[in-house]
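Whiteboard transcription, Tuesday session. T.W. wrote the C-alpha cells on the left side:
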C-alpha cells in the first residue's frame, strides 16, 4: 500500500477505538448501518438510542462533538432532498403551520434524515479513528476483491496528485496575472483542464512502468498483517450488537 497517507477526516489519537484493527471497525460499522436501515421508521425512539450509542463511541474515541458535526455537513444535499419530500410526495395530506404536507412525505423525510445522519456519523467516526492505509488493509483483510482494493488505493493517491497539480497550475496562472472573471476566460480554463488530463495520463504511465520494473505483477503485497483477537472483535462488535437489540425492540414494541 505504500507509505503512510493521512486524510483530512482522520484525527490522530491513542484511544481504545484507534487501537482496534481496521477490519474489525469496518465490519462493525457495516453491521451497524445495516441494523439502522432495518429499523422501522415509526420507532422514532430507536434512532435516538442509536445516536446515544454513537455518542458513546465518539466519547471513547475522544472525538470532539464539533469535529463530528462539522464533518456531518457532507450530507447537506440529502437534507435538501428530504425537506422537499413532504411537498412533492402524494397521498394523504396534513396542514402544518399553514402548509399542506404529505403524510408519506413527512415519514419519508424523517426516514432519510434519521438513517442517513446516523450512517454518515458512523462513517465519520470510522474515518476519524482509522488512517486511510489501514482502511485499505482492512478491506484486504475482509477479503474484498484485490482489484477493487487496488483501484481504491490508486484513486485516493492520484486524487491527491491531481489536486496538487491543479494547485500548481492555478498558482502559475495567477503569477502571470490571470484571474477568471467571466465567460471570456473559459477558453484558458479549458486548456488548463486539457493540460491537466495529459499530465495526469503521462504521470500514470511513468508510475506504472516504475512499478513493473520493480516486480509489480498486479497484486499489491500486504506488508504488515494485522490480526484481531477475540477481545478486540468483542469490543468492536459491541456497537452493532447493542443496535441490534434496539432494532428488535423497535419491531416488537
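and on the right, the sequence the group agreed on:
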Amino acid at each position: 500500500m505504500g507509505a503512510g497517507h493521512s486524510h483530512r477526516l482522520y484525527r490522530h489519537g491513542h484511544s481504545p477505538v484507534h487501537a482496534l484493527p481496521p477490519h474489525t471497525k469496518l465490519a462493525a460499522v457495516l453491521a451497524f448501518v445495516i441494523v439502522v436501515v432495518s429499523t422501522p421508521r415509526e420507532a422514532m425512539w430507536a434512532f435516538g438510542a442509536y445516536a446515544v450509542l454513537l455518542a458513546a463511541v465518539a466519547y471513547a474515541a475522544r472525538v470532539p462533538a464539533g469535529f463530528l458535526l462539522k464533518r456531518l455537513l457532507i450530507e447537506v444535499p440529502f437534507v435538501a432532498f428530504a425537506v422537499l419530500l413532504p411537498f412533492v410526495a402524494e397521498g394523504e395530506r396534513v396542514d402544518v403551520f399553514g402548509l399542506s404536507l404529505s403524510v408519506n412525505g413527512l415519514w419519508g423525510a424523517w426516514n432519510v434524515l434519521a438513517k442517513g445522519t446516523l450512517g454518515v456519523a458512523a462513517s465519520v467516526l470510522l474515518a476519524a479513528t482509522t488512517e486511510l492505509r489501514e482502511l485499505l488493509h482492512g478491506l484486504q483483510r475482509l477479503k474484498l476483491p484485490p482489484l477493487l482494493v487496488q483501484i481504491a488505493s490508486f484513486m485516493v493517491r492520484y486524487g491527491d496528485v491531481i489536486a496538487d497539480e491543479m494547485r500548481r497550475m492555478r498558482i502559475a496562472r495567477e503569477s502571470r496575472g490571470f484571474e477568471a472573471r467571466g465567460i471570456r476566460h473559459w477558453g484558458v480554463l479549458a486548456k488548463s483542464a486539457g493540460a491537466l488530463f495529459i499530465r495526469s495520463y503521462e504521470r500514470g504511465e511513468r508510475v506504472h512502468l516504475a512499478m513493473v520494473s520493480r516486480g509489480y505483477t498486479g497484486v499489491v503485497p500486504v506488508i504488515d498483517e494485522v490480526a484481531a483477537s477475540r477481545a478486540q472483535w468483542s469490543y468492536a462488535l459491541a456497537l452493532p450488537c447493542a443496535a441490534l437489540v434496539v432494532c428488535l425492540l423497535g419491531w416488537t414494541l
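Someone added at the bottom: The beta strands are 93-96, 99-102.
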